Predict the 3D structure of the following.
Amino acid sequence: MGILWEVSFVEFLFVTIVLGGGGAWMIGRSTALTWSGWGLLAFYLLLLTIAVRFIHFSLFNGSFLLPLSTFDTGLYYAVIDYIVLFAIAAAGRVFVRNRQMARQYGFLGKASA
């Protein structure tokens, strides 16, 4: 058990970073494309975090929020997963939003003659 991963680093890398991170990037992208707020992104990430924790639990014998005997461990690693997924989603959102703004308001960056 590590500070960031529960079972192994490879399992954390595969489930949280690759699978969950891909979903988080898409959540950030979709909230940027629809001009939705950060609150909706946070809610979607909460649902994704629960799904990621369930994958940790079901495939790799990690802890989940239930039963209550493993609630504290499951909550700790859920918070870690949420923070990692939020960072990836925020990067996706900022990346797409910057491209939207550059395309829409490209004339602002050009010097006038």
Observations:
- The radius of gyration is 17 Å.
- The longest helix spans residues 71-104.
- The mean pLDDT is 91.
